[in-house]
Amino acid sequence: MGTKQTLEPKVPDLALRIYFKNLNDLIIKGRNAASKCMAGSVPPECRQLWDYARQMGYNTDLLYRVDTGDGVQKEQAVDELLHFLKHPRH
User: Fold this and answer.
1) How many helices (H) and strands (E) does the chain have?
2) Which of 15, 85, 89, 90 lies at a CB distance of 3.0 to 4.6 Å from 11, suitable for a disulfide?
3) What phi and psi values does residue 82 have, to the nearest 5 degrees?
């Protein structure tokens, strides 16, 4: 990685890096979004990304990983949360 500083220095070199503003522009395609949501789990926090998403008008939901009992932390309900937000019950 050389001397380049990253937001998440402990992420392996094989991790995918995405420029969030370009991803947002690709998704929105110049349209007005009625709502935008982003969900994920912590750790890793990457607080700068979540703050940036909020500045861009996203409702953000962070869920804490749960311990499975064998020392492994597992993501909980992120996909389900996004489905719920996309298709709320009236």
Assistant:
1) 3, 4
2) 15
3) -65, -40
